[in-house]
Amino acid sequence: MTSPQKFRKKPVEIEAMLLPADATPTQGMAVYQWIESHIGSTQPAGDGPGYSPSSTGVTIDPADGFIVIRTLEGDMKVSLGDYVIRGVRNEFYPCKPDIFAVTYEPVETRTVLLCGNDELDPQNIGRMVGNAVRRARRGGDAV
User: Fold this and answer.
1) What is the predicted pLDDT for the residue at 140?
2) What is the pLDDT of residue 36?
3) Which one of 64, 100, 101, 135 is CB 3.0 to 4.6 Å from 83, fit for a cystine?
4) Rounded distance, CA 70 to CA 53, Å?
5) Nearest one of 12, 8, 7 to 105, comparing CA atoms
6) For residue 92, what pLDDT band results from cuts at 50, 70 and 90?
7) What is the DSSP letter of 92?
8) How far is CA 54 from the centre of its chain?
């Protein structure tokens, strides 16, 4: 490739949590615990026991109390108002809200009901209800 080419980001689903600009300690702890539950905790940057610049994990910066995510690219501080993203390879990183807004959109969820071995979703509920009504009219079991 000798000149720039255009590329489009593949549509992948990520998980994210917002650390609100006016976050309470409880909200900050919820974000911290979510990250920690996936990648563990680590020591703050420095020369203390357990510190390794190549390890991943999450910690709290003792100087200012902000969440710091240790990645293979270095330590990344989560500022108030940032989103924290869990990527497709279980990696975590902060993202500024303006970048998040133009890059991501909410994923629609669908309701799934389980009935015996049949999975019911909005597309086939009507078909299954119709079949049950027809069976009932014939004198068979409705369910």
Assistant:
1) 60
2) 94
3) 100
4) 8
5) 12
6) very high
7) E
8) 24
